[in-house]
């Protein structure tokens, strides 16, 4: 480059930016931060000690003499009577709750026993084994009705159903309605006469063997095994039906035993047991 006089001039060099002021600012900030940290570290134990002393400062105990200096005032007569009445009401309420709880527990145990009896009856009617019901029968009714429980268990080991009784009676129908081969001529004559002519009242059933057999089968279908047994016992050849009669009696004994334990589940006052073996002390609400 040249000046106005035409002389050559050297190019201008840019001056560096002032950096000293920036470094000085940074150093001051760092120094202030360090001083703040030191002051905090120095003051923190003093603050903690002061607050700790204030928190753990014991509360002044009240002398025992001051506590006893103010005796309690006795209750008035009306207040004492009111308090006694409240106590009596609470005791009566507790006694009532206890009685109600015992009654609920006893009724629940009786209901469970009745369900066990129903389950045993259903098993016998279907010819199925008792299974776990046998243990429940022994536990709940073993002391109240031991013979009935033994009868039910024995009947379940050789079950007899209404279908078995009907089929067995039909198998011997031809033999039981006719006189036995070794019958006397008088028995044979009476049988033939009864088949020809029957004299009876209109209100009485027909004594003819075949009609009585049909009537016995209808009784079995209706579950009236006792009435069917009476009809078979009057048959001409009753000896042929001896085995069937034994089965019918076993069937009836098992049902009578079931009736007994069902009645015990409802009305037994002493020897009935719960599922844990505890006695049921609460009387039945159905007891007379």
Verbal overview:
This protein has 288 residues and is mostly helical. 65% of the residues lie in helices and 0% in strands. It contains eleven helices and no strands. The model is unreliable at 10-15 (pLDDT under 50).
Distance between the termini: 140 Å
Q: H/E order of the elements? A: HHHHHHHHHHH
What is the radius of gyration? 53 Å
Global morphology: elongated
Instruction: Say how many strands there are.
Output: 0
Helix content: 55-70%
Which spans of ≥5 residues are poorly predicted at pLDDT below 50? 10-15
| Fraction in beta strands | under 5%
Q: Which oligomeric form is depicted?
A: single chain
Whole-number mean pLDDT: 75
The biggest sheet, with number of strands, parallel, antiparallel or mixed sense and barrel status, is: none
Query: What is the overall number of helices?
Result: 11
| Helix and strand composition category | mainly alpha
Please specify the SSE layout and strand pairing.
Blueprint: H1 20-55, H2 64-68, H3 77-126, H4 132-141, H5 146-157, H6 162-171, H7 173-176, H8 185-196, H9 209-221, H10 225-233, H11 242-267
Helix pairs in contact: 3-4, 3-11, 5-11, 9-10, 10-11
């Amino acid at each position: 480059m040249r000046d106005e006089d035409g002389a050559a001039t050297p190019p201008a060099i840019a001056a560096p930016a002032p950096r000293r002021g920036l470094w000085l600012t940074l150093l001051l900030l760092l120094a202030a931060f360090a001083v703040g940290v030191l002051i905090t570290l120095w003051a923190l134990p003093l603050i903690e000690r002061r607050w700790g002393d204030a928190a753990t400062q014991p509360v002044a105990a009240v002398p025992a003499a001051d506590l006893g200096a103010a005796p309690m005032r006795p209750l008035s007569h009306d207040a004492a009577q009111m308090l006694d009445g409240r106590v009596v009401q609470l005791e009566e309420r507790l006694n009532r709750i206890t009685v109600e709880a015992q009654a609920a527990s006893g009724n629940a145990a009786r209901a469970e026993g009745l369900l066990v009896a129903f389950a045993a009856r259903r098993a016998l009617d279907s010819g199925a084994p008792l299974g776990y019901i046998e243990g429940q029968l022994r536990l709940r009714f073993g002391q109240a009705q031991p013979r009935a429980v033994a009868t039910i268990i024995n009947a379940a080991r050789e079950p007899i159903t209404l279908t078995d009784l009907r089929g067995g009676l039909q198998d011997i129908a031809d033999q039981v309605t006719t006189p036995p081969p070794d019958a006397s001529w008088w028995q044979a004559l009476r049988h033939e006469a009864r088949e020809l002519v029957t004299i009876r009242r209109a209100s009485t059933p027909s004594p003819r063997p075949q009609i009585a057999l049909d009537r016995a089968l209808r009784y079995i279908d209706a579950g009236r095994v006792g009435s069917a047994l009476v009809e078979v016992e009057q048959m001409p050849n009753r000896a042929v039906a001896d085995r069937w009669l034994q089965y019918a009696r076993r069937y009836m004994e098992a049902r009578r035993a079931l009736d007994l334990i069902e009645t015990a589940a409802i009305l037994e006052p002493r020897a009935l047991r719960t599922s844990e073996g505890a006695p049921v002390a609460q009387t039945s609400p159905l007891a007379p």
